[in-house]
Amino acid sequence: MKAIAVFPGTKEVQVVEHPEPQIERPEQVKLRLLEVGVCGTDRHICAQAFGSPPAHSDYLILGHEALAEVVAVGDAVTHLQPGDLVVPEVRRPCADPSCRACQAEHQDFCQTGTYTERGIKELHGYMAEYVVDDARFLHPAPKELRQVAVLTEPLTIAEKALDQALQIQRRLPWQTSAATSTEPGRGLSAVVLGAGPIGLLGAMLFVIQGFDTYVYSRAQAPNEKADIVTAIGATYISSETTPIEELTQQVKQIDLVYEAMDAAPMAIEIIQHLNRNGIFIFTSGTNPRQPYGIDSAATLHNLTPLNQVIIGTVNAGPATFTSAIEHLGVFQQRWPSILPNLITERHPMQRASEVLLKKPGGIKHVVTIA
Ligand SMILES: [Zn+2]
Ligand SMILES: [Zn+2]
């Protein structure tokens, strides 16, 4: 079968012939891949910033944002059948029996760091015609979401961030009363940093949770991302025309910041403008080799007197995939003509290397497998 692989030695990305996998254990499922999204992680792997092939393989099959169709199931699989659409998880638990996180199916919090990840770390990914996977890592998606379910995995990043924020804010019981249980963001403002797929999907999630949502991103409006932000009822603010001081005047109180922009200096400066009891969530991380010349005392000055929390979050656990699929359904109903616009272009497998090695404009690029 055909697959798209990166060769770490040469940084080459090419279509390879790879043995078609077969079901070997009763709990396994064979999948035919439909589409796989491309993101910054894939591009970092191709540039050899990180990622590693499985042991004894010269290459790593790429792809972790997948949508697939079940073609066959092992004897022990009861919740899936051929024809079902599924979204697979990315991270797989480590083998260390003392890792309580992995033992509890929270491998996104793995304590040993010896987890594996499909298409990233020591396991082949989903840019292949067929894959065999354990049923417990597969999440059924309704057929109505066929055109957008490839966005599930990037949405899980926002789902986990929101879940972490809501768990932290249980410290404020007056805000998590029955009145706000369906819209926990009511009366609060959220600022999303960045208008890439993870930022825009996060903005959609914050809007449906009742947050007064702002997206702060580089490009001046009008542009296609700003149009999406406005259409979902959020406010787009360009950092080119609105410096951070003016942003804080416009938003008034920044209760939650969801960082998804890979621009640490700006993000860190915004920490200084966080509201009382506010939360700042990093999802993209910072580059340790790039000094920012930031006044760390000023950055952390308000943390204690204003009860603020700064957290980092990576990857997503099983429950987060379930809620992401559910919320994509909500987005689809609420914004049927907007949600599909997050997918800029679909590319055949033969053209995948162009999308992986360059960064084309637009929002989400997807490789069509079948
Ligand atoms: Zn990704
Ligand atoms: Zn672990």
Your description of this structure?
It is a single chain. The protein folds into two domains: 2-141 and 337-368, Medium-chain alcohol dehydrogenases, catalytic domain (Quinone Oxidoreductase, Chain A, domain 1, Alpha-Beta Complex); 155-312, NAD(P)-binding Rossmann-like Domain (Rossmann fold, 3-Layer(aba) Sandwich). Helix 3 (152-168) crosses helix 4 and helix 3 (152-168) packs across helix 9. The protein has helices spanning 40-46, 100-103, 152-168, 197-208, 224-231, 244-251, 264-271, 296-300, 318-334, 352-357; strands at residues 2-7, 12-17, 28-38, 60-61, 65-73, 85-88, 91-92, 116-118, 122-123, 130-134, 138-141, 189-193, 212-217, 235-238, 254-259, 274-282, 309-312, 343-348, 364-368. The mean pLDDT is 94. It is of the alpha/beta class and 370 residues long. Helix 7 links the parallel strand 15 (254-259) and strand 16. The termini are close together. Helix content is 25%, strand content 27%. One zinc ion binds at residues 93-94, 96, 99, 101-102, 107, 110-112, 115. Residues 39, 41, 64-65, 154 line the site of one zinc ion (ZN).
Please summarize what this structure is:
With 370 residues, the chain is an alpha/beta fold. It has helices at residues 40-46, 100-103, 152-168, 197-208, 224-231, 244-251, 264-271, 296-300, 318-334, 352-357; strands spanning 2-7, 12-17, 28-38, 60-61, 65-73, 85-88, 91-92, 116-118, 122-123, 130-134, 138-141, 189-193, 212-217, 235-238, 254-259, 274-282, 309-312, 343-348, 364-368.
